[in-house]
Structure formats: structure tokens, C-alpha cells
Design goal:
The chain has 3 helices and 9 strands. By secondary structure, it is of the alpha+beta class. It has a domain at about 50-135: OB fold (Dihydrolipoamide Acetyltransferase, E2P). Strands 1, 2, 3, 4, 5, 6, 7, 8 and 9 form a 9-stranded antiparallel β-sheet that branches. Strand 6 and strand 7 form a beta hairpin. The longest helix is centred in the N-terminal third of the chain and has 15 residues, at about 15-30. It is globular. The protein starts with 13 loop residues before the first helix and ends with a strand.
Length: about 180
């Protein structure tokens, strides 16, 4: 004969639950539990740097500097800023970085780049580009004379689809550009 026995649990009353919760809250808020940890400082995702050099194809620079031979299809895949002391900083190819791919003239001049370098990433992101010459420092962008729109890569104008031109504006001692 099969018998089943029932087990009965008696739940505490509402006042017992309230007392239990109050005791737990008091235990958590005791001042003598040790020092509070210092508040977390927000960590920066990136740092802003100013770097000087020339923008080159990374594969060509690696072959020239270190004897690394890449496969032919890698020859014009990645751009990098090569500094005078030989450091190579690969460029993130967003709109500003891609400007160096699309316009060969930008790879033939000495530049100063204002960049973001993200923590844990090997590439830099171009914020502003300047050409360095004996006559001074010139900010580089592209300009549509018809629409008066500045752009950051050589292509048809975003507005009228007409031609745009490379614009070089002198940067004064105060850091402002002048036409």
C-alpha cells in the first residue's frame, strides 16, 4: 500500500518578514563594516595627440624599415603615419583617414595630425590634418566653391555633385586659420 505524507511549512507572519528585512538592511548599513571604496574615476576611452610625419602605405614602410615582405594585395591596403623617428601609426579609415587614400598629394607632404588614440587599439583616428611647409602650417580640407561646403576627402560635392578643390588655409600663431 502506497502512502504519501504531506509536509506542511508554516510561513512567518507579515510582522516577522518585516523584522527580518529590517535586520538585513541594518546589517548592510552598519558604519563599522570597513571603509568605503573610493569612487571610480571615469576612464578615458582615448587620448588626443598631435603627431608629425608623412602618411605612407604600411606595407611599403614595413618592407623599407624592417624587411617585412607582404603579399601583393596588401600593398595598398593600410595607411600609416610614419614619424621622423620611424614609428608607424596605422590610420583608421573613416572619412578623414580615407582622404589620404583618395588624394595622392596628401601622401607627398609633411603633415601634422591631431588624432585620437584609443586605449587598446593600434590605430589612430585623424581629427584634423595640417601640411607643414617652410612658409608655415596649413590646415587641409576640401572646398566646394559653389556650395561653400568643407569636406574631408576628394570626391564630388555632397550637395551639387560638382568638383571640389584641395584647400590649404594658413594657421596663425593663435591657432586660427586665415584664408
Amino acid at each position: 500500500m502506497l502512502t504519501t505524507s504531506k509536509i506542511h511549512f508554516r510561513l512567518p507572519s507579515c510582522s516577522a518578514w518585516s523584522l527580518l528585512i529590517a535586520m538585513l538592511l541594518m546589517a548592510l548599513s552598519v558604519d563599522g563594516a570597513g571603509p568605503e571604496p573610493p569612487p571610480q574615476q571615469p576612464t578615458k576611452k582615448f587620448e588626443v595627440l598631435t603627431l608629425r610625419g608623412r602618411v605612407v602605405w604600411l606595407a611599403e614602410a614595413m618592407a623599407r624599415r624592417h624587411g617585412v615582405k607582404t603579399v601583393p594585395e596588401a600593398a595598398k591596403r593600410v595607411l600609416a603615419l610614419e614619424t621622423p623617428d620611424g614609428k608607424l601609426f596605422p590610420l583608421a579609415e573613416d572619412i578623414r583617414g580615407r582622404g589620404f587614400r583618395r588624394d595622392e598629394r596628401l601622401r607627398k607632404v609633411d603633415v601634422e595630425l591631431l588624432v585620437r588614440r584609443y586605449r587598446g587599439a593600434p590605430v589612430i583616428q585623424v581629427i584634423r590634418a595640417f601640411e607643414l611647409t617652410k612658409k608655415g602650417k596649413f590646415e587641409l580640407d576640401y572646398w566646394c566653391e559653389i556650395c561653400s561646403i568643407a569636406m574631408f576627402e576628394l570626391k564630388p560635392c555632397d550637395c551639387c555633385q560638382g568638383e571640389i578643390e584641395l584647400r590649404r588655409r594658413i594657421v596663425g600663431q593663435d591657432g586660427r586659420t586665415r584664408d
